[in-house]
Amino acid sequence: MGSLQLQDFAAGWVGGAASVVVGHPLDTIKTRLQAGHGYGNTLNCVLTVYRNESVAGFFRGMSFPLASIAVYSSVVFGVFSNTQRLLSQLRHGDPAHAPALTDVAVASMMAGFVSVGIGTPVDLVKIRLQMQTQPYSKANVNPKPTVPGFPVYRGPIHCFRTVLQKEGIAGIYRGMGAMLLRDVPGYCLYFIPYTFFCDWITPDGCISPNPSSVWLAGGVAGVISWGTATPMDVVKSRLQADGVYLNKYKGTLDCILQSYQNEGLKVFFRGITINAVRGFPVSSAMFLGYELSLKAMKRDQTETNP
């Protein structure tokens, strides 16, 4: 694999790390709203977390995503960019040729499909750590023999090992079906709007978009992608949070049916506001980290090999 292809993976790693630092507090609120109980709205959730757990509560479970989502983003951007390059090579005989819209869509779906293999265990551990201190309030269910409100897992490694021992590989990949339904179309609505807005905002004659164009296009793409992905994100969060104190859902379809029967259609849009708000800074940081680090690596390569 050439240096150009490796640069995409390295730049994706930087972008992923930047997005975690920016977005984790909002991600915690989003997860609590979607999978938890007793929160009337976003503001009430924020105040409750702060009151019960102080500022540290918003960063609970961040160490694992910071270490792993960087790798996850590296794979997403690496697969996306290299698939685009391969399609341009096959279509036009030139990997640097501007990709067609269909090429961007195919590359996006490929990135979404591949990313689920890494992203499902990462999200499961993150969500279990975020949810484990929540008091469980269902009166008609017998929870696991763990006191609700007290930590079940000592950290990400212990969480991963415990789930693997008690639930096997199927437990680690719990929610994978919902994640596929979220991420395959979700990445199309991520990379296509980003590419479109970048091309639209960037002045004619510029070889690459400037940081402000990347920031704006990335933010808009994040709002669109996360806003439309919310229904499947709700299902995924519920499936992966399920298991801290009890096992309520048999699978993706069962989770959809139970959620709809108990809470109506509105449940699938729970957290859509925080998802859309969170999508802008997280995606801006992701694309800025990716584009700026890629530009720096290419500049260093040019200076090293004049």
SSE diagram, text form:
Blueprint: H1 3-35, H2 42-53, H3 63-92, H4 101-131, H5 156-172, H6 176-201, H7 211-241, H8 252-263, H9 272-304
Low-pLDDT parts are 136-149
Overall spatial form: globular
Q: Give average pLDDT, whole number.
A: 83
The CATH superfamily is Mitochondrial carrier domain
Q: How would you sum up this structure, described in words?
A:
With 306 residues, the protein is mostly helical. It contains 9 helices and no strands. Helices cover 74% and strands 0% of the residues. Helix 1 (3-35) packs antiparallel against helix 9 and helix 6 (176-201) runs antiparallel to helix 7 (211-241). The longest helix is centred in the first third of the chain and has 33 residues, at 3-35. Mean pLDDT is 83; it is low at 136-149. Solcar repeats lie at residues 3-86, 99-200, 209-296. Belongs to the mitochondrial carrier (TC 2.A.29) family. It is found in: Mitochondrion inner membrane.
